[in-house]
Amino acid sequence: MKLSKKIQGIQASPIRKFFKYTEAAKNAGKKVYFLNIGQPDIKTPPVFMEAIRNDGREIVEYGPSAGTPLMISAVQEYYRRYGMEFTQDEIIVTCGGSEALRFIVDCVCDEGDEIIIPEPFYTNYGAFIRASGGVIVPLTTTPENGYRYADRAAIDACVTPRSRALLLTNPGNPTGVVLSPEEMRLIGQAAKDHDLFIISDEVYREFVYDGKQITSFGQIPDIADRVILVDSVSKRFSACGARIGTVLSKNRDLLESLLKLAQSRLCAPTLDQLGSAALYRMDPGYFTEIRAEFEKRRDAAYEELSKIDGIVCMKPPGAFYITAKLPVENAEEFLIWLLREFDDGNETVMFTPAEGFYATEGLGRSEIRIAYVLNEQDLRRGIELIRLALSAYRRAGAPLRPACPASPDARTVPQ
Amino acid sequence: MKLSKKIQGIQASPIRKFFKYTEAAKNAGKKVYFLNIGQPDIKTPPVFMEAIRNDGREIVEYGPSAGTPLMISAVQEYYRRYGMEFTQDEIIVTCGGSEALRFIVDCVCDEGDEIIIPEPFYTNYGAFIRASGGVIVPLTTTPENGYRYADRAAIDACVTPRSRALLLTNPGNPTGVVLSPEEMRLIGQAAKDHDLFIISDEVYREFVYDGKQITSFGQIPDIADRVILVDSVSKRFSACGARIGTVLSKNRDLLESLLKLAQSRLCAPTLDQLGSAALYRMDPGYFTEIRAEFEKRRDAAYEELSKIDGIVCMKPPGAFYITAKLPVENAEEFLIWLLREFDDGNETVMFTPAEGFYATEGLGRSEIRIAYVLNEQDLRRGIELIRLALSAYRRAGAPLRPACPASPDARTVPQ
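Predict the joint structure of the above. Result:
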C-alpha cells in the first residue's frame, strides 16, 4: 500500500524527539523547568463549565455546520466591541483555530499554489499547507532585525504567479512581533497590488503590552474582501481543550467554499460552543488582569534573558513567546546536552529549538523559543538555568556561534 | 483572488437547496414529517454529561494529540469485547468520524490518486476525497440487486495503477447493506491482490438486525496491516454533537502519518473525550434495547414502503436508513412538488433524494433515502404521505419511471 507523498513530507512534532531526554532527566531525579509549553497556566473562566453544567439537553445533538446561533452571536458582539461589524453568515465556527486554518488553506490552494509566510512561523502552518498540496514561500526575518516582516521589497520578492495568500500571526508566534498600523497598511497594499488574500491569525489579539492598542486586519475597510481572520478561544480564554475556533470573512465566494468544508464535517462540538459563547459574553475587563500578568512575566523573562552574554533578543510587544538567538552553533544539540549532562542543584530546563519554525534550510539553528506561561519565579529560574548552562557548555568546549552585528532595530545585549 | 479548484468541485449540501421549500411549507401551516434526518432521537446516555459535570479541572487544557489515555483505554476495552486487540498506539482519537476520514484520505491520496467506493455512498466521502485532490471511482450497485457490492469482477474493473484504497460503510449509509463474512473475505482478498487499503467506516456497527452477529474488518487477521477502521460515538451512543471519532490501524507507517496530522491540529475536545470514555465504559447491554427499537422502526418503515405500488426496495439488514427506488423519473422534482403542491390533512413529508449519493452522472434519480429515526407512528405516517402523494402525482400527469425487472436478490413489491 502506498501512502501520500504530501503527508510524508510533513515533519513529525519535534516534541517527541526530546521526550526521551526530558523523561531520562526526570528519571535521573532532576527537576525540569518546561519553558517550551504553549498551554497557559491561567484558569479557564468558570462561566465555561457553568454554561455546560447547567445545560439541560437530553440529546447532545449536531449543531448547524457554521456554528450554533448562540456562539455566532457571541462572536459577533465581541467583534463589535473592536469596531468590526460582521453579519452572522460571515462567521463560521470551527474545531479550533487549527481547523479554521486547514479549511482556509484548502480553499485557496490547489497543488503547487503558494502561500507567503514570514519565517520563523508556527510550525503547524507547514502541515496544513503541505496536506493541502500547497507550497510555503518564506518571507525571511532575522533576530537582529527584531523579526519584523512588513518590508515591501521583501514581500514583492516572494510573489510569483502561483501566490495565493499572505499568512501571518499577529501578535506573532513564535516571535511576539506586533504589527503597527502603518505596517498593516503596507501589507494590505501589497496584498491589493498582487491580488492576494491576507490570512490573519489573531488568536493572541488581546496579548499586547506597553499600553498598545488592540488592532486587527478586520479594521481596514479597503481590504475587507481579501482579509480572512482566524480566531480561537484557546489562548484568549485559556480554553485550549475546548477546540473552538472561528473564521471571519466578507468574501462571499470564500465563505461559500468554507461552508462546504464545514458541512462535510457536520459541526463543531456542541457543548464546547455553549461554554465558548459564555466566554465571549464575559466583561471585557477580564483581559486587563490577564494582560497585566503576562506583561509582568514578559518583563521578567526579558530581564533574565538580557543577562545572557551574547544573546540576540528583542523585548516582544505581544503574544506570550520570546524567540532569542543564543551564542551556540546548534540550539538543539545544546538542549540535548542540557537535559543529559547539565544540572544546577539538580535542576535543568527545556525550551523549543527554533529551527523547526523556519522553512529555509539551515536558518534558526542558534535560536530558541520560550513561552512565558509559568509563574514569574519558575520562569526566572528556568532562564537562569539556560544562562548557567551556557557558561558550562562553553567551558566544555562546545561550538559557539560567531558573533554577528545587530541591526539598530534589535535590542541586543552587548557581549 | 483565486479560490482552489478542488473545493469549488465539492457539491454544497443539498439540504440547503430544499430548505426554502420546507420553510415555505411550514409557513403555509403544513406539518412536515422529516424523514431525511440522520440525527437519532435516542437520548444520549446520562453518563456522558455526568462525567463532564463531575469533572473538577480548573483549566480546560490540551490533551495528547492521539487522544486522552482514558479515552484510548475505553476504546481499547470496547474492541476487546468484539475479539479485536489493539495496542494503545494503534488508536487515534479524532474530532468525529469526519476528521478520521479526512485524515485517512489525506494519508493515502496525492492529487489524482483513486479511492474505490460502492455507490450510492455517504456524500461527505466525496468532499473529503476532493479536498485531498483524490478521485472517487464508483463501484456501482443497484436497487434491483439490493445495493450489494461484494462482486469480485466489479471490484477488479475499478482498479487502476492509481488505486489506493477501497472505502466502504458497513453497515451501510445510505443503503443499510451489511456485508456477510464471506463478502468480507472476498473484499479482503481483492484488497490483497491489488495491494489496497480497506477503509472501513463502521460507525453503525451495533445497528444490525434479525439476530445477525456484529462483525468488523478488524476481525480478519490476514489483512490486519491494510485495514483502517473508522469509528465514532455519534450514532453508537446518540452523541452526534460530541464530535469524538476514532481511527484504528495496525499499519505503523499509516499510524505515523495519521499522528502527524493529529499533532498539527493539537487535540480532540478534552471534555467530550471524558464523556465519550464514560459512554464506551457502559454495559454493552445498552445496545440490546436500542437495537430492538431500531429494528421495530425498520420493520414499520419497510412495511409502509411495501404498500407503495412500483417501489423497488429491500429490507435493509443494518444502520437506520432505507434507500428505495420510487416509480417517478425524478425524486427531487417529486420532493419539491410534495413540499409545494401536496398535502393530506395539511401534512406533507421530507426525504433525501438519493442522486447526491452517486458519483456516476444520472444514477439514482428515482431513488430516495429515508432515515428511520422517528417514532414508529410518525414514521408510518411520513411514508404513508409519500404513498398518497405518489398517487396524486400520477394523477397530476407527472413523468413516471418505466418499470424495470427486479433481480432475484431484491425484495420488490409487485406493481
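The longest helix of chain B spans residues 286-306.
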